[in-house]
Write a structure and sequence with these properties.
Length: about 375
């Protein structure tokens, strides 16, 4: 970020605060590799895999239309995962699915449950990617003229149905939360006709279709959010492990801890934490976790002030999309141990939008 600013002759003082916390997060993660079982080289590889896509977004994108190309690529990826998963969920496509499986591709749904997974092999991982694509579709529907929104309304509907079929409670909550931000804080409302069409279509498909009734019955336990939920027990156990060594056990230590007496003395399970914040704290220390949370809060703060800014050519408000994805994914990684790269992509989108405002590429409405 700072290097790009210097090369282009910008005032680097604008980037000081986010760059500082980004550096602290990266440094904390890498240093924890020195005493972790994975080692410093593996720590560097994992760090780059997590932050690389967001960093590339910041470095490479310099025009609003290029940002649109990135967003459409994410949307295409989400739709590709959705359609691939739907092939395995619906009856009648068995022969096509066999061709995919015989070529070495992964199944598009959980082999042990009727839950859509796409190419990612995990319903929550897939669900959060679908959610990102859904918000991009919603962003296009809100900001386009009525005669041009049909394809994005269709993509939003497909992704919303696919999100439902992941039966990922983490994704459901995050999606509802992000949609509420769109319609509440930013007052970016669909027209009454668009809203009615999208809502009724979803309800009719899910409630009155025999297939959806069947898969819902197969996953009825997913509708119990509090009863017999083991994750709160896991979080409590790993939290007790974290506070015993607040500076971290080192990158890769989760795999050792989950099979150690330290965890088994607290809970009769060797499951992973299913919480990215706990994983970062346990492996890289509280100092690295604080840096990540600071980056998220700074991104939200920057975008909060940009809600009235839009592209002068298209009228699109990228600040709304950025804050929705950052907050929703920040909530989403509470329920799983991955996809930090998707979160950093949304953080990169936030800072890029802020840069566009500073460079007068986005103007006040």
């Amino acid at each position: 970020m700072l290097g790009t600013a210097v090369l282009e002759g910008r005032n680097i003082g604008r980037y000081r605060v986010p760059a500082l916390w980004f550096f602290l997060f990266s440094a904390g993660y890498l240093i924890s590799g020195l005493w972790g079982p994975s080692g410093i080289v593996e720590a560097f590889r994992l760090l780059f895999a997590q932050i690389g896509i967001g960093l590339a977004l910041m470095i490479s994108v310099r025009r609003v239309r290029h940002l649109d190309m990135i967003l459409y690529t994410i949307l295409f990826s989400a739709l590709l995962n959705a359609f691939y998963g739907l092939l395995f969920m619906f009856l009648g496509f068995e022969s096509i699915c066999e061709v995919f499986l015989s070529s070495g591709m992964v199944p598009g749904r959980d082999p042990y449950a009727m839950r859509l997974t796409g190419f990612l092999e995990d319903p929550t991982y897939c669900g959060l990617l679908l959610m990102f694509g859904y918000f991009i579709s919603l962003h296009e529907v809100i900001n386009r003229r009525l005669q041009k929104v049909l394809k994005f309304m269709l993509s939003a509907g497909v992704l919303l149905i696919s999100i439902y079929l992941t039966f990922s409670r983490t994704t459901w909550i995050s999606t509802i939360f992000g949609t509420a931000i769109y319609w509440g804080f930013y007052k970016l409302k669909l027209t009454q006709k668009q809203f009615i069409v999208m809502t009724l279509s979803f309800v009719i498909v899910v409630v009155f279709n025999d297939f959806f009734a069947y898969v819902t019955a197969q996953n009825i336990d997913r509708f119990s959010f509090l009863h017999s939920d083991s994750r709160t027990w896991l979080w409590n156990a790993y939290f007790k492990i974290a506070i015993q060594k607040p500076l971290g056990y080192g990158v890769g230590s989760i795999e050792e801890l989950r099979n150690s007496r330290l965890l088994l003395n607290l809970i009769d399970s060797n499951a992973r934490p299913h919480n990215m914040y706990l994983i970062i704290w346990i492996e890289s220390g509280l100092q690295t976790l604080i840096a990540l949370i600071a980056l998220i809060l700074i991104a939200v703060k920057y975008e909060w002030s940009l809600q009235q800014y839009q592209d002068p050519l298209t009228g699109k408000r990228y600040g709304a999309l950025a804050i929705v994805t950052v907050t929703s994914l920040s909530l989403g990684i509470f329920g799983l141990g991955g996809l930090l790269n998707l979160l950093f992509l949304s953080i990169g989108l936030s800072f890029l939008t802020w840069l566009f405002v500073k460079e007068s590429k986005l103007v006040r409405e």
